[in-house]
Design goal:
The complex is a heterotrimer.
Chain A lengths: L1 H22 L15 E3 L3 E8 L11 H10 L1 E7 L5 H11 L5 E3 L4 H6 L7 H4 L3 H6 L2 H6 L9 E2 L5 E2 L10 E6 H6 L8 H14 L10 E3 L9 H4 L1 H5 L9 E2 L6 E2 L5 H16 L11 H9 L3 E7 H14 L9 E4 L24 E3 L6 H12 L1 H8 L8 E2 L5 E2 L2 H7 L2 H6 L11 E2 L14 H6 L3 H10 L4 H5 L12 H4 L7 H22 L3 H14 L2 H20 L3
Parallel strand pairs in A: 2-3, 2-4, 6-16, 8-11
Antiparallel strand pairs in A: 1-2, 4-13, 5-13, 7-11, 7-12, 9-10, 14-15
Chain B lengths: L1 H46 L3 H4 L14 H7 L4 H30 L7 H11 L6 H10 L17 H12 L3 H9 L4 H12 L1 H17 L2 H6 L9 H13 L5 H6 L7 H26 L3 E2 L2 E2 L2
Antiparallel strand pairs in B: 1-2
Helix pairs in contact in B: 1-14, 3-14, 4-7, 4-10, 4-12, 7-10, 10-14, 12-14
Chain C lengths: L1 H13 L6 H6 L1 H19 L10 E2 L5 H4 L1 E2 L3 H7 L2 H33 L4 H12 L6 H12 L4 H8 L13 H28 L4 H9 L4 H25 L8 H6 L5 H4 L2 H8 L6 H28 L7
Antiparallel strand pairs in C: 1-2
The chains are: A alpha/beta, B mainly alpha, C mainly alpha.
Chain lengths: 564, 303, 318
């Protein structure tokens, strides 16, 4: 056995030596041989590969809907997601290796792929595919052109077909439990002071839940990137939408730093007061996401700021399954600003083009036309319904008016992890529509279907909605149009890196805020704490960061002006 | 006469100390077992609890809402069988090759007369503290044809300085007389290695085999990096990591999470996956354990 | 007796072998295998070090190692003029040293005490349990630790019931608790696993030494001090030497999972810094520069440690 082993070893070494002299110097990003992209297997189905540099759930190889789509389109895509790595790093190694999948979404690594010449310009092709062409307006297409004038990727999300059908407010808000509102007789709550006042009064009268557990009046999630629950409220309180990194004055078109506004001072001062009153959870700044969700799930937390998707699918479900909705522990959003003169923009209607990232096709793809044809097919109504609604009569039913709906059983099954992997295939990082289906009756996906939505609502939420005379979460807040052509600035700031002065400042500011905002809220002397924070803050050179944002905002406004 | 008196006294004293020692030791061990067993039992309890219910926290030693669902979710994972086969293969082949190569190297550098023993040791010691980085290593492996291949799990990890040093230290501790007498009988290095040293090194071989095997069993990063697009070489741990990455990924941002909302894997599934990977090791462990716990020693059986 | 054996060993180690044709012929088997192993080591461990050139380049994956722009020592200057980097070096070193000392002592202590258990079955069972936490991921272990140390967790409960405190301590809000918590977590997860190596070393001790000690009237403590510990001394020293070189690898995941904004000043390690300011910014040079720094420090440390070991006539790395 040892002899054999030696032989193998020797062989391996000899091979290595030969290869190292041959390929050792090849460090470039040129694409070498391809492994399996675009190969046809039996049955005439072409298999493409895709890599998405974002976390996601893999579906099974024998996924049923994927198979149906493959039969209809002749294409099947094997999707791979980011696992345990940073997007930048994953993309870096893929470029170094020079072997690309057919489709790629590099997230914040997209610019690197572009630099490496790994992406195929799509502008020449787009006109040939009506569904792709239709996906954006001419102006929107132009907004995603890169510096060389070509289009390399297609942003997949937040695109509305026809009438918008949002029922859930899948974004940030001040949330409050329905029991608090019910106790107060469903009052109009419009300002931050009213909100905290209500929580205080409620908690004084009802410090405990039915089973004797003490309430946590208000908690703040601060873990890592989720600290938006603490830091970005000032922009909303001032009546601006979520630009992510700054606010833009619609009149003067000037970029404003929301970290240092008077409203920011008022907001953090309020949190500081509430912290010392014992309203803000003392563990706010040290809790992990799991602990936060556990608190919410137990129904103890009366209110918090968060994004809907961050708690609804976890804590929201747990509250329901424990029957806590009967005690009024479900959350509804409130249209809160700093004072009543401001109109809130917590919810914006309409699509958002995130020009910073999207689905791209790489130079390793042998058959770009076929790949794009597939994207085109995915946007067709029949396949789009398969992706998001599933198989008719299995995953949804249709009544004589042509309306789609799901039974309770279907709803539960479609939420099951194992079923999703073996049956559902949304091709979730391929372009997709929101809004109304081309049939004019249904929503593009179940979450937008009003009847679906209403049936799935918990009773305490229904009662609350009825009291306010609204039908959806969105109506609780009201909607406003996208504020202007610069929106959203986060599509620019998300791709900031320390290679520019502005990006450097942005990263430093993030670090300082992580450390000092909790200190400010906990400070015995707020003013002193705030001054200390501001001193550190100014050292980060926020002006560099604002200047770059201003340039980008100006560019976007100028671009948009061409179409007027 | 007097000396035996003293002896007795001393014995008495020492046996008192021995009793105290035994008491202390027992208390220490009981505490230790409680503290180390708790996280494992807690994970087991969560793995057997309904996922949504588990979000509320407060589960300690017993599940609150019992279910096997988390296990079926994990076991129904696509490619799990392929992953398991590859993982078993890499564990077996990787452990055997690594054991042989490390032992050979350790044998060489533990020969007192070997002319480069110091240099060769230093050469390997340095490898523990230097690292070319992810991208250069990737380019090298690609150049060697190790990407999209099974051998990337075996060849790069054949020698590790740590394991080599562990074996070397053990070999250095063996009595020289054994080797010397064999040399007098005309035995060459190969014979000495196979016939004389190796049989005595069973405990340390078992230890190193355990380290390598566990390392092989648990690794997923190489599968992810070098065989990203080659499903046929996926490993069990990589498949499980994929299942869990939606919750544990550090590189998440608000934007990506918004787009993948609802795709979060509950902690209870994470717990089930952990238990599933631990089980085979717990089963195989006693076979290795006998070498280094009960004590197979030089001169015969201890105690 | 073991001391005597050691001595002869030491003499031999010092023995200088002249390189002569006769000697080469005698050692040809050893030389042949060494050559193969050196080639292997060169390819897999030394060749990738060519990548260190990245630290001196504005590396862009698109351009590769050969065509990226050369920037000299810019990244090193940038690193060492950043006070945050100096702070993370301090944190890494502090946690590295604390962890090294505590995990080391605990593993040896545990191995020795376990060895003193007379009932085989109990010994095996305890040993099996002890290494299990090694297989739990940090995210699970830190989750449980967070739970235990929270305001309503068991630790605060016990402290309150013992009337040691009036109000719960928020352990994760105070920088002074952070390093001890990390050290405890390491001990918790790895003690049993780290002890395996000492247990295997203990098996190599000649039982006759224990018998001889018993005849001399040695108690159990005396046997531990005079037989067991000297018997595993060389293993202890080798592991100590190796770990000294690893003090800058204090980790990343555990600090990342246990840390928060309030304890940032003490929780961030070099690896976290590199992730934040290097990798996730697409700045490859920075990560490589920090890696080179770590390697240099490690090698300096082990050279010193090895020299000390040599002076005191102990087992050494090379």
């Amino acid at each position: 056995m040892r002899k054999k082993h030696v032989k193998h070893l020797m062989l391996a070494f000899m091979m290595s030596a030969a290869l190292i002299t041959g390929c050792g110097s090849d460090g470039g990003g040129t694409s070498g041989k391809k492994t399996e992209g675009g190969s046809s297997d039996d049955g005439g189905i072409t298999e493409f590969t895709a890599f998405f540099a974002v976390p996601g759930s893999e579906i099974n190889d024998d996924n049923e809907i994927q198979q149906i789509i493959a039969e209809k389109t002749g294409v099947k895509v094997k999707e791979t997601w980011l696992t345990g790595q940073e997007a930048e790093e994953a993309i870096g190694t893929i470029i170094a290796g020079g072997e690309y999948p057919d489709f790629i979404e590099g997230g914040s690594g997209n610019p690197q792929l572009l630099d490496a010449g790994a992406l195929v310009p799509l502008d020449d092709y787009i006109d040939k595919y009506p569904n792709i062409k239709e996906f954006f307006t001419e102006q929107e297409w132009d907004s995603i052109r890169q510096e060389d004038g070509h289009i390399y990727w297609i942003p997949q999300f937040s695109n509305i077909y026809g009438e918008e059908k949002a029922c859930e407010h899948n974004d940030e808000a001040f949330w409050i439990q329905t029991r608090v509102l019910k106790w107060a007789g469903y009052p109009e709550i419009k300002t931050m002071d009213q909100y905290f006042d209500l929580i205080e009064r409620y908690n004084k009268e009802n410090p405990k839940m039915e089973d004797g557990t003490e309430n946590i009046p208000y908690t703040i999630l601060c873990e890592d990137w989720r600290y938006f629950c603490l830091e970005n409220a000032p922009q909303f309180l001032d009546g601006y939408p979520n630009d992510g990194s700054c606010i833009v004055d619609p009149k003067t078109l000037k970029v404003i730093d929301y970290n240092t506004t008077d409203t920011a001072v008022k907001y953090f001062k309020k949190l500081n007061e509430e912290y010392h009153k014992g309203i803000v959870d003392r563990e706010s700044f040290t809790q992990t996401y799991d602990e936060y969700i556990a608190k919410l799930s137990s129904g103890r937390v009366l209110g918090m700021i968060d994004q809907w998707w961050d708690f609804a699918y976890t804590a929201g479900d747990a509250i329901k399954s424990a029957g806590l909705d009967k005690q009024g522990c479900s959350y509804v959003p409130l249209p809160i600003t700093i004072d009543e003169s401001k109109t809130n923009q917590w919810h914006n209607s309409g699509g958002v083009v995130n020009a910073g990232s999207g689905l791209a096709i790489t130079t390793s793809c042998d058959d770009v036309e076929k790949a794009l044809q597939f994207v085109n097919d995915l946007l067709g109504q029949e396949i789009h319904d398969l992706r998001f609604w599933g198989v008719k009569d299995t995953d949804y039913q249709v009544n004589d008016k042509g309306e789609f709906s799901r039974t309770d059983e279907m709803r539960t099954r479609c939420a099951d992890t194992a079923y999703k992997a073996s049956h559902m295939c949304t091709y979730s990082y391929f372009p997709q529509w929101g809004g109304t289906s081309r049939d004019g009756i249904n929503a593009m996906s179940p979450s937008g279907q009003a009847s679906e939505f209403y049936d799935g609502l918990k009773n305490d939420v229904k009662e609350c909605f009825d009291a306010y005379g609204v039908k959806t979460y969105v109506e609780m807040l009201g909607t406003s149009e996208a504020p202007g052509p610069w929106y959203p600035m986060w599509s620019y700031s998300n791709n900031f890196t320390t290679s520019t002065d502005g990006g450097m400042a942005w990263t430093k500011i993030g670090e300082i805020k992580h450390e000092y905002l909790p200190k400010v809220v906990m400070a015995k002397d707020f003013d002193k704490g705030w001054d200390e924070y501001m001193e550190k803050y100014k050292k980060c050179k926020p002006e560099d960061f604002l200047a770059e944002l201003q340039t980008e905002a100006d560019r976007r406004v100028a671009e948009a002006a061409k179409y007027k | 006469m007097e000396s035996t008196e003293n002896e007795k006294k001393r014995r008495k004293k020492s046996s008192k100390a021995d009793v105290a020692f035994t008491v202390f030791n027992s208390i220490f061990m009981v505490l230790f077992v409680i503290v180390t067993l708790y996280p494992v039992l807690n994970t087991l309890a969560i793995s057997l609890n309904d996922g949504t219910d588990a979000l509320r926290g407060g589960i300690h030693l017993l599940p609150r809402k019992f279910t096997w669902k988390n296990y079926t979710t994990v076991l129904e994972k696509n490619n799990l069988i392929t992953g398991a086969v590859i993982t078993v293969a890499r564990t077996v082949i990787g452990t055997l090759t690594a054991l042989v190569t490390n032992a050979i190297l350790a044998f060489i550098v533990s020969r007192p007369r070997f002319m480069f023993r110091k240099q060769l040791s230093l050469f390997w010691v340095i490898t523990m503290y230097v690292n070319g980085g992810l991208i250069p290593t990737f380019i090298l492996f690609k150049g060697l044809g190790l990407t999209n291949s099974f051998w990337v799990y075996i060849i790069p990890g054949m020698i590790s300085a740590f394991n080599m040093l562990v074996i070397r230290t053990y070999m250095n501790g063996l009595p020289d007389s054994l080797v010397e007498s064999a040399q007098l009988d005309g035995a060459g290095y190969t014979t000495i290695f196979i016939k004389i040293i190796s049989p005595l090194c069973k405990p340390v071989y078992a230890t190193v085999a355990l380290f390598v095997a566990v390392g092989q069993w648990n690794s997923w990063f190489d599968a992810m990096l070098y065989n990203r697009m080659s499903n046929e070489y996926t490993t069990l741990q990589y498949e499980l990591m994929k299942l869990l990455s939606a919750v544990t990924n550090i590189g998440s941002t608000a934007e990506t999470m918004k787009n993948t909302a609802g795709a979060v894997t509950p902690a209870s599934v994470r717990a089930a996956a952990t238990i599933i990977t631990m089980l085979p090791i717990i089963c195989i462990y006693p076979f290795l354990q006998k070498y280094f716990v009960t004590g197979l020693t030089l001169g015969g059986v201890k105690e | 007796m073991s001391g005597k054996r050691k001595k002869t060993k030491q003499v031999e180690t010092e023995m200088k072998v002249k390189i002569t044709w006769k000697e080469i012929k005698r050692q040809k088997v050893l030389l042949f295998w060494s050559a193969i192993i050196v080639i292997y080591g060169f390819i897999f461990y030394y060749l990738p070090l060519g990548g260190w050139i990245m630290a001196f380049q504005d590396y862009k994956p698109a351009k590769g190692l050969l065509h990226s722009e050369f920037i000299g020592f810019d990244k090193f200057i940038q690193l060492f003029s950043d006070e945050t980097f100096i702070r993370v070096i301090r944190n890494t070193l502090a946690m590295g040293v604390i962890n090294l000392v505590i995990t080391f002592v605990m593993a040896i202590l545990f191995a020795i005490l376990l060895n003193e258990i007379r009932q085989r079955r109990t010994k095996k069972v305890i040993q099996t349990i002890s290494y299990l936490p090694h297989f739990l991921s940090w995210i699970i272990v830190t989750g449980i630790l967070h739970d235990a140390l929270s305001g309503t967790g068991i630790i605060n409960e016990v402290l309150r019931n013992l009337h040691l405190i009036d109000h719960s301590i928020d352990f994760f809000a105070h920088p002074s608790y952070f390093w001890p918590i990390v050290a405890f977590a390491n001990v918790w997860k790895e003690t049993g696993w780290n002890a395996i190596i000492y247990l295997s070393a203990i098996t190599a001790i000649d039982p006759s030494l224990y018998e001889a000690a018993s005849i001399d009237g040695a108690g159990r403590m005396a046997k531990i001090m005079h037989v067991t510990l000297p018997g595993i001394k060389s293993t202890i020293i080798i592991l100590l030497l190796m770990n000294v070189g690893n003090v800058l690898n204090a980790g990343f995941e555990i600090q990342y999972l246990l840390g928060n904004g309030l304890v940032k000043s003490v929780s961030e390690t070099i690896d976290i810094y590199v992730l934040k300011w290097g990798i996730s910014q697409g700045d490859y040079a920075m990560g490589t520069a920090a890696g080179i720094f770590k390697s240099v420090v490690s090698i300096v440390l082990i050279v010193i440690a090895n020299q000390v070991a040599k002076r005191s006539g102990e087992e050494r790395l090379y």
